[in-house]
Amino acid sequence: MLEKLQSQPADALLALIKMYADDEREDKIDLGVGVYRTGEGATPVFSAIKGAETRLLEQQDSKSYLGPEGDMGFVQALMPYVFGEDATMGGRIAGMQTPGGTGAVRLALALAQRAGAERVHLGLPSWPNHVQILEDLGMEAVPFDHANADGSANLAALIAAIDGAAPGDLVLLHGCCHNPTGIDYTPEDWDVIAQALERNGVLPLLDIAYQGLGRGLDEDVSGVRGVLAAVPEALIAYSCDKNFGLYRDRVGAFYVMAQDGGTLDTILSNANALARATWSMPPDHGAAAVRIALRDPDLTREWRTELDGMRDRMRDVRRQLAAADSDAPGLNLAALTEQNGLFAVLPLDRGQIAALREEHAIYMAGSGRINIAGLHVGNIGKFIAALADVTQR
């Protein structure tokens, strides 16, 4: 029976990782993999997480099952950072732990599908796994253009998608630090989005994967909070991979906002059943470390300081690239200072991307997406010179 399966194409990013690893040039630059890197090119464990893990090692007295909802102390400790002072919105928001943000997105979509949803409006380009999850579930992805050519968000396309949505449709929105473009909606845009969602009754799925890496912890979710204040119900997917550096530990959370507490209980019973049938129970270690870090004021301060340093470094890289705008005509590097997070998309064609790789040992996705954190004082000059070379031919 298994012989009936057809070979699937290799993941393009995994292929890029192998090419980079096989390249023996000492000055090679990796801008493909979506992890944060320091100015020395390392992806370290947060010191706040190291401190929390030390306490976990000393204090944890069992590794028994937690249940499909996972570590509820972790889920609740995150909520004030995501939702603000009234973290439950008067008892209308609750959640559960998931294996990474991917698990949260998958659970949110499966839950919406169980409730009758068939179509999801999605701004493209987007994180590639969004479409893959929709296709695997058999849901329809209805695309609209996320970005304008000038490097701003295409608000008009989103509002048209919301206004044209059918009853029961979803709209998937990146909460901040858009992957792959880095192009976020402005606070004024979010006000318009909230009004459109309130007016048309489309169910929002808010994917928050990079809180704290854009403008600040509160600033990065101010738009999300505005939407939640305007609509009766919403689905929220959250990832701790980037802002706690817990990539391989797969730490995420799924939250749902319902019209009332009674409805919330029913929704969560379905979410728990779906989680039980999918991964049974989420991994515990990373979530436990986050819970400890967020419950201890000293570790929380340490985490926030580390997060501030990451954000400041990436903003500095953006400023340096923007200053070289005239060296690489047509790329609009100046717009990078208005964008946020780990990623940006440069309008390079495949020939230019291949030339960067083959002639300059610079590796990036075929879409032109670059990881801003892959650049630092030791290689940004080389990168800018290489861009000038391939764009001025």
Describe this structure in words.
By secondary structure, the protein is an alpha/beta fold. The protein has two domains: 11-44 and 311-391, Alpha-Beta Complex (Aspartate Aminotransferase, domain 1), CATH 3.90.1150; 65-295, Aspartate Aminotransferase, domain 2 (3-Layer(aba) Sandwich). It is built from 13 helices and eleven strands. It has helices at 12-22, 47-59, 72-83, 100-114, 128-137, 155-163, 187-200, 222-230, 261-278, 285-295, 297-323, 350-360, 380-391, and strands at residues 29-30, 93-99, 119-124, 140-145, 170-174, 203-208, 234-239, 251-257, 343-345, 362-363, 369-371. The strands form three sheets. Strands 2-8-7-6-5-3-4 form a seven-stranded mixed beta sheet, sandwiched between helices. Strands 1-10 form a two-stranded parallel sheet. Helix 12 packs across helix 13 (380-391). The radius of gyration is 21 Å and the shape is globular. The protein starts with 11 loop residues before the first helix and ends with a helix. The mean pLDDT is 95.
Poorly predicted tracts of residues? none
By CATH reckoning, the class of the largest domain would read Alpha Beta
Number of strands: 11
The helical percent reads 40-55%
Cα(first) to Cα(last) distance is: 53 Å
Q: How does the major sheet shape up? A: 7 strands, mixed
**Biggest sheet, strands in spatial order?**
2-8-7-6-5-3-4
| Number of structurally distinct domains | 2
Shape: globular
Structural class: alpha/beta
In angstroms, what is the radius of gyration?
Answer: 21 Å
Q: Spell out the helices and strands N to C.
A: HEHHEHEHEHEHEHEEHHHEHEEH
CATH level-4 homologous superfamily of the largest domain: Type I PLP-dependent aspartate aminotransferase-like (Major domain)
Chain-averaged pLDDT: 95
CATH topology (fold) name of the largest domain: Aspartate Aminotransferase, domain 2
What is the helix tally? 13
**Percent of residues in beta strands:** 5-15%
**So, CATH architecture of the largest domain?**
3-Layer(aba) Sandwich
